[in-house]
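Record DUF305 domain-containing protein, 173 aa.
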Amino acid sequence: MPSIFLTASRARFVTAAVFPVVVMSLGMGVSLAHAAGPSNAGPEAPFLAENDDAMTRMMDAMSIKPSGDVDHDFVGMMLPHHQGAIDMAQAELRYGHNEQLRRIAQEIVVEQQQEIIAMRLALGQPLPPSAPAPDQAQPPSSPASPHAVPPEASSTKTMSMPMSSMRMKQESK
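=>
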């Protein structure tokens, strides 16, 4: 029977893996609680709905059964966490208007994709399929954002890999 008490090292692992999600959830909870008011049907509604879906998918996917392999479990929780960040950043790119935040959202997409690749490589897992560049994100059923670059204007569909990941892969050979 597993112990209900956490060892110090497991507590640090759980804290490191879960803390960012809790912080994001609290922030989203405040935003979504505000959205539940009468102004819910306004222009922000599609953004809020998309973010709520992203948070739900992320939280569900992060609820994994421990495998007994700390590295595998860490990656099992971090991959959906990173994908959730990508999904939320893409919603900002679709609906946001602040250029500084849109640039940050683009960076989040690229950096989180790179970290997903690095974690998968570290465990010898297959890489995800390449995704459109962050400035190409379009809402599923709405017209193009005035800030988005039309797909025909950019053919960038590759994902770059951080140098540290490439070194890590080469050193493991």
